[in-house]
Specification:
Layout lengths: L2 H8 L14 H11 L4 H8 L3 H8 L7 H11 L3 H6 L16 H35 L2
Helix pairs in contact: 3-4
């Protein structure tokens, strides 16, 4: 297969980091926006939409209509197909070299246990307040 044919073949190859199985439209939009060094407000202003609209798109509450999707892809220099499915031309995945360190596991578990204790104390306080309120309403 020639180089040109290989490149054409790979255009719609799933992106392992931003594929539909791993990332949503909102995840890809947020990543592309951040890669373009735009705030949500900046993107909203450039598209002529509200900040709430951008937030809804990034939180997967809504998706843009086709005309706005085309504008978004052009502004962020990614393909519409990539935004919608993770296929095609998108952004480079983050270059994070996160490695789980075994010795950190016990630290994390200790922190989780401590948080559970604090949550239990809050639940107890909430129960006490709730009981006082319900007794006062009788």
């Amino acid at each position: 297969m020639s180089k040109k044919n290989r490149e054409s073949y790979n255009i719609l190859k799933p992106d392992p980091y931003f594929s539909e199985k791993i990332a949503t439209f909102g995840d890809r939009l947020c990543a592309a926006r951040e890669d373009s060094q735009l705030s949500q407000k900046d993107l909203a202003n450039r598209l002529g939409v509200t900040l709430k609209t951008i937030q809804a798109w990034e939180n997967d509450v809504n998706e843009p209509r086709a005309n706005k999707l085309q504008m978004v892809s052009a502004l962020l220099n990614v393909s519409m197909v990539w935004l919608m499915s993770g296929l095609g031309n998108g952004i480079e995945p983050p270059k994070e070299n996160f490695k789980f360190q075994a010795n950190r596991g016990s630290e994390i578990l200790t922190e989780i246990k401590d948080l559970r204790k604090v949550i239990a104390q809050f639940i107890s306080k909430i129960d006490t307040i709730e009981k006082k309120v319900s007794e006062g309403n009788q």
